[in-house]
Design goal:
Blueprint lengths: L2 H27 L30 H25 L1 H28 L7
Length: about 120
């Protein structure tokens, strides 16, 4: 066995033991308020008495907003390196980018047909 592997194993096991020890210590040292009414109450965004049920259905527009975010924002992560190296990639890279842009355009048509772009 190499010394690097042994050292990595020792560090990994040491970190695991230290973290386990910290979790056990916090269980014994930390405050214990299991029956506290305030601890078990619901608190979300400043609202202490929520109204309604949490098992409601969300509109598909939330999903479509996420798709539009992926289409219009994250695509830049893939397009910028292509634009930097477009001369080196040649026609093969150009064809691949047209395929990628076609898939993005298909997604744009999908969210347009679902009327996610209309803000009512």
């Amino acid at each position: 066995m190499s010394t690097e592997l042994i050292l990595a194993s020792v560090i990994f096991v040491s970190i695991g033991l230290i973290l386990s020890g910290v979790f056990v210590l916090t269980r014994f040292i930390g405050p214990k308020n299991e029956n506290s009414e305030i601890k078990n109450s619901v608190y979300e965004s400043g609202i202490t008495n929520p109204v309604g049920n949490t098992n409601i259905r969300f509109s598909v527009k939330f999903y479509l907003v996420a798709i539009s975010f992926l289409l219009f924002d994250v695509e830049i992560v893939f397009m910028f390196p292509w634009a930097v190296n477009v001369a080196e990639l040649g026609y093969y890279g150009l064809v691949k980018m047209f395929i990628f842009m076609g898939l993005l355009f298909a997604g744009l048509i999908y969210i347009y047909k679902k009327k996610a772009l209309s803000w009512d």
